[in-house]
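protien #1 (seq + structre)
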Amino acid sequence: MKEAGHPGGKGLPKLTLIYGAGRGHDAPAQVFQENLRKLGIRVELKALEREAFFEALMSGKMSMFAGSWQGDYPSRDAFLYSLFHSESGDNMVGYANKRVDSLIIDARQAADPKERRELYEQAEERILRDAPVVPVTFVGTSLVRASKVKGFVRTPLDDTPLDRIWLAD
């Protein structure tokens, strides 16, 4: 904060953290607010209903927001193109880096899996260096099931196809 010219948060305006109401974001938002307060950064919390949240997100007129993302398929592209390519409609933070765009497009077109992986890794490194977002949590799951539950599988996207499950006698 001192290096940025704001020792103890002096001179910084109050920031507003918007997040989706009723989706389990209240407690994490409060922790985030408290952690920033300790650095001298004042944060107002604003929980918005789904439609208002996405409206605010798309307008780009917010200090910061808390959200989540789940990939549609188990590929880096589900995250890298969607969230960080400058022409993606899901790039909510307005991130734009021509080299990252190029790496992502080259990776999408690469037939060789090793080359594709290397290109995505280069894009990830640049994105992490630029830090357009701050990943705070990663959600995982734990499962417990009875031995009479049959047909139970988890997909690579951590989903459970319920139509394949049955109970044995």
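ok now protien #2
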Amino acid sequence: MPEKTKVDGNLALSQKKVIVIDAAERPETAKLRVAAYCRVSSDSSDQLNSFMAQLNYYTTLINSRDTWMLADIYADEGITGTSAEKRPDFQRLLSDCRKGQIDKILVKSISRFARNTTDCLTIIRELKSIGVGVCFEEQNIDTSKMSGELLTAVFAGIAQKESESISGNMRWSYKRRMENGTYVPSVLPYGYIRIDGKIEIDEKRANVIRQIFSWYLSGQSADMIADMLNTKQIPSRYGGVRWSQTAVRYILTNEKYAGNSLWQKYYTTDTLPYQHPRNRGQRESYYAESTHDAIVSMEDFTAAQELMAKRRNVLTPEQNIPSPFRKKLCCGECGTIFRRKRIRGVIYWACMGHDKKGNDFCPVTQIPEHLICEAFLRLYYKLKSHGEDILTQMLADLQAIREHRMLWSEDVIELNKQISDLSDQNRMLASMNQAGLVDPDLFISQSNRLASQLQAAKREKDRLIGARDDDMIRQLVDSVKVLSADRILVRLRGGVEIEQTVEEAQVKWSF
């Protein structure tokens, strides 16, 4: 503690002498300790030449900078580059960084530093947290000049390119095997199994396939066959008993059951996010005969296709005609969808539950299409003539619901956050490009990816705000009463009720 001395009867602190020790080197003049990491040839006869060439290159490069000093050159054999744990000099490099002996690392490319972009990003983040930057020469990336968010965005773009490259290589391999007839799908249809890379018949399930073809050729419909399989408790493809007419039709039309193969019925898009649309001529398809043993004869398979075409064209042509009521008419008794059919020249809409399972299951009978059209037209003209007050209130309610959704819906809030994050990433990427810190090709691919994601997020937000019919119904409609087989009563918020009949030409309003 400072000494106390007495001056004129008063105590005072005496002044201590303080010695200032100058720093050995000012921070602004200190040189960056720069290391280089490389991988040498896996050919033992060329390892020395490879290492010496890179040693001379990096030594010359680092010594040419007045503000840099060479820390060390680290090199590993090329074949061990896929795993960081198997690269001893790479581990030595990381250890020296953690000891505070290195400020910057020079690497030729990201692939030389790490083959896996996820691991690479993890290591770079750790190095960045301890003040070590990594410069990738080929990509023109200096991690010390990038924010964490931008670092993530850039490496996400690099990972996307790697994924697309791998996917492209796999598609090329599949295409070659399809062309020479040796392709074996990863997923085989019901009735087949893979043994030693070959397609073999699963006899237990093959008998089910043969029975399906036999029933169909004897006159049973796909719906009836599905019901029989469910009644007999026959396990479906994934073990449960959930046969449907769609599954039966898929079996009846699959050429593989006749021993042939049509490949690339669906195709994978070239860029992320990958989609798998049906191939309608956008890509080549490949057809090969006798690629494996058949479960049914070619004669039976061909007969099934001809019978299906005949039934489709003769028995149910009306189901293929576009209609505004398709998939919109639902039975109030059993909940099943109505389907369109023609009987003696008249178009009807029939409850599928009633048609398939009879009056005991559902008593609702078929309705002529012209009566449904007339009922909708009556409702429209009644609303147009007398519904101004009601529609005004409904529009106000809709606007209130929309505004409520905009402000408080969790998924809309999450989309707003996503849109904001994507916009920030886009701005950071643009700034980095202006500063020359990113390869032009990478900038374009990453910018396109962000723009695509941003557009998708905005579309999803618009969809949620503008097309949530279930929410509209819950908030606008109090209840719906089925008064009879031909009358319903819809009660709206505020006590407004609309009664609509099918056969009678009237709409009753009550307030």
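The chain has 15 helices and 18 strands.
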